[in-house]
Amino acid sequence: MKKPFGSLLAILLSMGPTVFAQSVDGRLTGTWDAVVTIRNCVRGGGGSAIRSFESVGSFNAGGTFSGITSGTPPTLRTSERGVWTHLSGDSYRFRFKAYLYSADALVIGYQVVTHDLQLDADNLHYTSDGITQIFSPDGTQIGFGCSTSDATRMVLD
Amino acid sequence: MKITTAGIFGVLFLTMASSVAAQRSGVSRLAGTWDAVVTPRVCSTGAPITTFKAAYIFSPGGTFSGVSSGTGSGGRGREQLGVWKHVEGDQYRFRIKAYLFNSAGVVTSYQIVTHDAVLDDDALIWSSTGDSRTFSMDGVQINVGCSTIVAERIEEP
C-alpha cells in the first residue's frame, strides 16, 4: 500500500537540516586564500603568466564580496568590494571594484574585475578566470587584462 | 499510522522554529558591527604593550571583515578578512588575516590572528583572547604574539 504523505514526510525530514543550514548557492559563502595570476589575454584562456600574488576574498552571505590583496601597495589601490552570484551547479561569477591612486594620493581611476569560478565538490577549493578592466575616473576604459585565481577556503579549528 | 498534511506542516514548522530559536540562542548573536579596543600583550606575563581601536563586522554566514587603526603607516595591515563560528553557548572563535607592507609599499608578511570570544548575555559586549602569528610570504612563521580585545556593538542609529 502506498503512503504518499509518509514518503513525502520522510523526504522532507531528510532534507530539512541540509535545506535550512545551507542552500546550494550558499556553498561558496566564506573566506578564501587565493593565489592570483595575471596573464596575457589569449582567446579561450590559458595565457602565459605575467606575475602572481596572494589575496584574500570573502564571499558574504547575501551576495556581497570583500577582498584584500598583497599584490598592490594599499596606498595605490583600495581594498575590493563587489558582488557574487551562483550560476548553476558548481559555477559562480563574481565582480569587484577597487579605486586606484597615484603615488601622491590622487585618484587616477578604478578597476573592475569579473571572474567565472568553479567550486570543487568538497567546497574547499576553487579556481576562477576572467578579465580586469581599468577605467579613468570619468568612466572611460583605459586598460584591459586577464587573470586566473586558485583558492583554498580559510577554516577554523 | 495516518499521516496528514497538517501533520507534515506541523513537523516542518517545528523544524524551522527550532532552527530560528537555535540562531537566536547562539549562532547569530555575534553577527553585527563592533567597536573594538585591541591590546597586544606580552604572552608570558599578560602585560599590555599598547592599545588601538578597530571596527569589525561579523556577517551572517561566518565571514568577517575589519579595519584597524593600530598597524602603522602606509596602510600596512589596516584591513582584515576572516571567518568566525559559534563554538557553544556564548563562546565564539574567529580568525582574521591581514597583509603587512613596509613603508615603501612592498608586502613583507601576513598576520593570522585567532581569538576565542565570549559574548555577554545581552549581546552588546564581547571580550576575547588569542594569538597573532606572523608569516613570511613563503609561509614561514616569523613571530607570535598575544592580545586581548574588548568590543561594544555599534547599534542602529
Fold and architecture overview:
- The complex is a heterodimer of chains A (157) and B (157).
- With 157 residues, chain A is mostly beta strands.
- Chain A has 1 helix and 8 strands.
- In chain A, strand 7 (125-135) and strand 8 form a beta hairpin.
- The model of chain A is unreliable at 1-22 (pLDDT under 50).
- By secondary structure, chain B is mainly β.
- Chain B has a single domain (30-153), classed as Lipocalin (Beta Barrel), CATH 2.40.128.
- Helix content of chain B is 15%, strand content 52%.
- Chain B has an 8-stranded antiparallel beta barrel with strand order 1-2-3-4-5-6-7-8.
- The relative contact order of chain B is 0.17.
- The chains are: A mainly beta (157), B mainly beta (157).
- Chains A and B meet through helix 1, strand 1, strand 2 and strand 3 of A and helix 1, strand 3, strand 4, strand 5 and strand 6 of B.
Q: What is the arithmetic mean of pLDDT of chain A?
A: 88
Low-confidence stretches of chain A: 1-22
- The CATH architecture category of chain A equals Beta Barrel
CATH-assigned fold name of chain A: Lipocalin
Q: Specify the CATH class of chain A.
A: Mainly Beta
Describe the largest sheet of chain A. 8 strands, antiparallel, barrel
- Weakly predicted, low-confidence segments of chain B: 8-24
Going across the biggest sheet of chain B, name each strand in turn.
1-2-3-4-5-6-7-8
Contiguous helical run count of chain B: 1
Structural class of chain A: mainly beta
**What is the highest CATH level, the class of chain B?**
Mainly Beta
Biggest interface and its residues per chain? A-B, 38 and 43 residues
The proportion of residues in beta strands of chain B is: over 45%
CATH architecture of chain B: Beta Barrel
Tell the overall outline of chain B.
globular
Helix content of chain A: 10-25%
